[in-house]
Amino acid sequence: MVDGPRRRALVLGILGSPRERSNTGVLLERVLAGAAAAGAETELIRLRDLEYSSCRHCGGCDKTGECVVQDDMQQVHRKLRAARHLVLASPIQFSGVSGETKAMIDRAQCCWVGRYRLKRAASEVEGERRGLFVGTCGGRDARVFEWAAHTVKAFMNSAGFRYWGELFEANTDGSPPVGERRDRLAEAENVGGRLVGQ
After folding, report:
1. In this structure, are strands 41-46 and 10-15 parallel, antiparallel, or unpaired?
2. Cβ neighbours of residue 66 closer than 8 Å, sequence gap 6 or more
3. Of 87, 93, 138, 197, whose CB neighbour count within 10 A is largest?
4. Domain harbouring 125, CATH code
5. Residue 5 within any structural domain of the chain
6. CA of residue 105 relative to chain centroid, distance
């Protein structure tokens, strides 16, 4: 898919929270709202709504760059190739991304194979593709974001996105609720606009 003069850049949001209504989701929605206000087309994928398994490490993608496991992850791979920019959002669980997010990341082995072993372009979208990591944690120790970011950076690189920035919010178990932290919500919208506009 090539961006044409009438097509707006697609900003793909992927939400890895297992909860239906989550702090991570609140921030992601604001980021996407900011991107939309800056003129982008946005789409949100909620991993909790998909049916997919973890990577089998079977080597089935080694020759084709395509995952041989047929499930909902196929649509995620298509969207990753079509997106101009990516916003990956996950709560931090035991110092890493959520299980839903990690399973999705592991299934991107086919993206790595396509890009680095088969030397194929990660996308037909021309120009720089940026990746933003949105993370939340219930506690106050912000070091957990740094640890999780290593995994996210590797994923974004394999999928053809430059790790452009991050938006982290700690102490989400405290008060006020994230949905009432107006400064952080405004910052999320601002980041979404800058993701598209820079």
Report:
1. parallel
2. 110, 114
3. 87
4. 3.40.50.360
5. no
6. 9
Domain containing 93 equals 10-197
pLDDT at residue 5 tops 60: no
**Residue position matching structure tokens 């931090």:** 92
CB contact set of 32 (below 8 Å; sequence gap of 6+): 11, 13, 42, 44, 87, 192
CA distance 3 to 58: 34
Residue 1 lies in a domain: no
3-state secondary structure at position 125: coil
C-alpha span between 115 and 130 (Å, rounded):
16
Count how many domains the chain has: 1
Q: Is residue 43 part of a domain?
A: yes
Whether the model clears a pTM of 0.85, i.e. scores above it, the answer is yes
Q: Which residue bears the tokens 């047929």?
A: 70
CA distance 21 to 183: 20
* End-to-end C-alpha distance for the chain, whole angstroms: 22
Mind listing the pLDDT tens digit for each residue in 142-185? 999 999 999 999 999 999 999 999 999 999 999 998 989 999 99
- What are 20's two structure tokens? 């239906």
185 lies in some domain? yes
What is the average per-residue pLDDT within 183-194? 96
